[in-house]
Amino acid sequence: MVDINEYERVVEASQAPLFKYCYFRLGKSRELTEETLDDVFHVLYKKWSTLNLDDNLMGWLYHVADREIKQHLRRHNLYYKRFESLEEALDARQLESLAYTDEYFDKSDIDEEEYFDKIESALPAEYRKIFRYRFIEKHTLIETSAHLGIPYSTLRPRVLKLEEMIREKVAELFER
Length: 176
Hints:
Order of helices and strands: HHHHHHHH
Helix content: over 70%
């Protein structure tokens, strides 16, 4: 049974950090971010009775957000498969204004470059180049492998580890 008051408290407390996380991962698409958040909170509602609120609930929500982001990107890229990337699809279709400020970002928030710089500086040195090339410059795994001289079979597990580290660093650095 869902305790509506507690559920609403959790949603309210986690909405802004999850929105920011999804917003940057989805190429600053407000429309996709809001759809993704709806799905995350739907999963939270469905799984409410099985969750232990004393556990790391935000960590679990970030995990669910990652899964939903991947699903939304997969569906979105299938729909816009003639484009090279999500960014091109957004630009070509003009799905939304990519204005940065809205109710989720207040004046004390940092811009995208500072956001990524903070995350990058918090990572171990051996992962910074991978982070920059793969996640900031948005190169494919094959391009990243060739550019950094890391075998593809070695790079894939490092990227998975890096994604986990990024989730942890975002939670440490940006949750209030």
